Amino acid sequence: MADNWPTIHAERRALASDLGDLSAEQWRTPSLCQGWSVHDVLAHQVASATLTPPAFLAKFIAAGFNFGKFAQTAVDKIGKDGPAATLAAYKLHETSTKSPPGPKDTWLGETIVHAEDIRRPLGIAHDYPQDALVKVLDFFKGSNTLIGSKDRVAGLTLKATDVEWTHGSGPLVEGPAVSLLMAMTGRKAHLDDLTGDGVETLRGR
Asked: Of the residues 6, 18, 69, 143, which has the maximum number of CB atoms within 10 A of its CB?
């Protein structure tokens, strides 16, 4: 995990900078995470940066092993004092190396995917590090945990047009690496950035 932390910390700093001047209305903008505003997603990121495996387990048990309830409880608690307080907490934990249990590349993936969940609806462009995008694409292509990305792209050829990365076989889906990543993780907004005979198959999954 040590090799991921510098990138995670840099991406947290970049996101905090992007969000510094949002209006109250912008904070309420629906994110790409269904049912959550951009403020809610940032609160979720604060939760991830403050949890250790034992704390995660205790809270998960308290939520009755219901991940949705577990995540929502944390978002409600962290976000209760409003966006300014949530952003301050995010900055405070910017260099945290705490994380819930899971494969080491999960938290790099969460950092990038949730940052884009926030940026895309707000119309904020960001150049994510290419090596980090490749690492996260390689992780999610083989993972079905929670979001089912492995099954979502089964039987398709994915090809990035801005980095050296391909995966799979079958009808082609190609486009920017970040758009492939977001589509792989179920974010349909990024499908409009992709081309190829496999796009409609991916759109239907």
From this structure: 143
